[in-house]
# Entry
Amino acid sequence: MEKYRALVVRENEEGSFSKGVELVDQGFLPANDVLIKVKYAALNYKDALSASGHKGVSRFYPHTPGVDACGIVEEDKSGRFEPGQAVICTSYDLGMNTKGGFAEYISVPAEWIVPLPEKMSLKEAMIMGTAAYTAALALYKMENNGQRPAMGPIMVTGASGGVGSMAVAILKKAGYEVLASSGKQEAVGYLLSIGAKEVLDRSAVNDESGRPLLRSEWAGAIDNVGGNTLVTLLKKCGRNGSVATIGLVDRAEFDMSIYPFILNGVNLLGIDSAETPMNIRTLVWEKLAQEWRPDHLEEIASFCSLEEIPAQMDLILNGKTKGRVVAEM
Ligand SMILES: NC(=O)c1ccc[n+]([C@@H]2O[C@H](COP(=O)([O-])OP(=O)(O)OC[C@H]3O[C@@H](n4cnc5c(N)ncnc54)[C@H](OP(=O)(O)O)[C@@H]3O)[C@@H](O)[C@H]2O)c1
# Structure
């Protein structure tokens, strides 16, 4: 391979950013041990930030975003993987300051790679991708802190997004009653079909009363939104429940008293999918291949080409996507 096709984001002289598919030399890739021919790459909120020049995500341009990729090993200088082996590579620095999955090839360290679990296709792995992995990691951590289906329902916010959809489907599969909060009236039928018992409007998880504690309405929560949504989730969480904080599509900051923690024993759990140790990463992927494998994967997914990614990024930034968007190379 001397040249390959990649989505390239360039910083222009006046500080604006442009993006398009280009034919680039192999030297555009970093010189890591494992060269992978990408079959599928999934689109995430973080990729939309990287593609629009958000220096908190990607500092160096020209750059190829894409934190989620899977494909076939072409070459491994470390000797850990066989040519022809199907593998998954998500998070770590992929798509951030390492050229990412929106390309025909990636070059990554062997330590970042998970072999494709048995009973999972490459296509399924990317429909799930970082979104399902992160949602499953949240449930893994919640259960390690005592969360159980018998305690009551789990609320998922930003539910029609990638992580939210996967959280709904995984919780349902794991035996939980699932409440979903969404800003999209048109997503109600979709969320019920993938496992939600009830869908609430976003405003129901945005308490403005200023009261330090509220009557409990859920036994735990998975939050993609941050800000006052996270505050409301904590104030309305039942005794000894866990609230996993994943995302910040509204705000990164939040302001509240400590009463939910010291009077109700509520746990606030931080979820960092990018740097999870490999033993936990492999275990969570195995759960996704088996007992937590979401039903309705095809309903959660839509597909696009490499050329269609820029238009999809705009939809993500405007909160307009539903479920998971997967690019087929
Ligand atoms: N911690 C980690 O390791 C980790 C891993 C992956 C992703 N994340 C983060 O998780 C978040 C979700 O990622 P994603 O890929 O699922 O994004 P996404 O597909 O774009 O979904 C985000 C969803 O949030 C809701 N939303 C959008 N704007 C909102 C607003 N202003 N207020 C409230 N809700 C809003 C929308 O759902 P509704 O219309 O249904 O409300 C939207 O579909 C992002 O912040 C991402 O950076 C973190």
Observations:
- The mean pLDDT is 96.
- Residues 29 and 86 are 20 Å apart (CA to CA).
- The radius of gyration is 20 Å.
- The chain has nine helices and 15 strands.
